[in-house]
Amino acid sequence: MPIRSVGVAVKRGSEQGYAIARELLVYGKELGLDMLIDEEVVEDVNWSNTFRLGIDPVDVVIVIGGNGTLCRTLHRLGDMVVPIMTVRMGRRGFLLDVPPSEARDRLRDLVEGRYTIVEYMRLRVTIESKEVILPLALNDVVIQSWGPSRTKVVKMDVYADEDMLYSIDGDGVIVSTPLGSSAYALAAGGPLVDTDLESLVVVPLAPLQFNAKPVVLSPKRVVRIYIAMESGPAACVVDGQSIELLKPGDVVKVYKAEKPAKIIRFARVNTYARLRHTL
């Protein structure tokens, strides 16, 4: 498919990101593309053509920033699936692969078709009894203790379909994608899962029960987390970006989303080599 329109989203408040965005906007226009800047940063970048993420259609979105910027951009896109080219700023942009010095060359590669699109599984999360729309998770859904001190234990029952995995008291539980298995879930003691596999990774957070261990589930499973009536305050956090407070009796349902994230790659990604260099 020929690429005609490109939207650019940048980490807010990053002067380096704004400079890269201006360079790509000008260069993309020279290549004959309709270049648009995210309306959130139009005053900082000083570019006349804007677009609204998740509303105005574009052929490609370029994300300039780190992992948080990428996740936030995907959340704002909602159910609109758009291929994303990533420009990495900083050392720990694990999900982003184009260094700023190569951004212009990769944009030309994009126009000339020298790229592949890699699809990453995402998670959909709903809260029964609540009419809220939570974004699709690229990394993880975390049910965790909440409140000013976060010292109270979260009590919950965790099910895979109709099978109870465990009844636990602790800081919470993580449900991650294979991609997210290298993030918070890994730090909490979970396994590293190959991104070529589709699965749900369930990792308890500091459980009091000694037998509450990480579990890797089929992507066909639906994970349900029941917040006990005697539980302390809790919240549902999606990709570290979107937060919804929970109350005792709430049920959180997490399952494979129908729509994956589509990330543009210009070379093969060696996940394990990247882990060694970034973690």
Q: What this model shows, in words?
A:
The protein is of the alpha+beta class. The chain has 2 domains: 5-120 and 260-278, Probable inorganic polyphosphate/atp-NAD kinase, domain 1 (Rossmann fold, 3-Layer(aba) Sandwich), CATH 3.40.50; 123-256, Probable inorganic polyphosphate/atp-NAD kinase, domain 2 (Tumour Suppressor Smad4). It has helices at 15-30, 42-45, 67-77, 103-111, 184-187, 271-278; strands at residues 5-10, 34-38, 50-51, 60-65, 84-88, 116-120, 123-128, 140-145, 154-160, 163-170, 172-176, 200-205, 215-217, 223-227, 234-238, 242-246, 251-256, 261-265. The strands form 4 sheets. Strands 13-12-11-8-15-16 form a 6-stranded antiparallel beta sheet, with no helix packed on it. Strand 2, helix 2 (42-45) and strand 3 (50-51) form a beta-alpha-beta unit. Helix 1 packs parallel to helix 4. The longest helix is centred in the N-terminal third of the chain and has 16 residues, at 15-30. The protein starts with a strand and ends with a helix. The mean pLDDT is 93.
Q: What's the number of structural domains?
A: 2
Indicate the mean pLDDT.
93
Alpha carbon gyration radius = 20 Å
- Helix and strand string, N-terminal first? EHEHEEHEHEEEEEEHEEEEEEEH
CATH architecture descriptor of the largest domain: 3-Layer(aba) Sandwich
> Separation of termini?
36 Å
What's the helical proportion of residues? 10-25%
Report the sheet-strand fraction.
Answer: 25-35%
CATH superfamily of the largest domain: Probable inorganic polyphosphate/atp-NAD kinase, domain 1
Highest-level CATH class of the largest domain: Alpha Beta
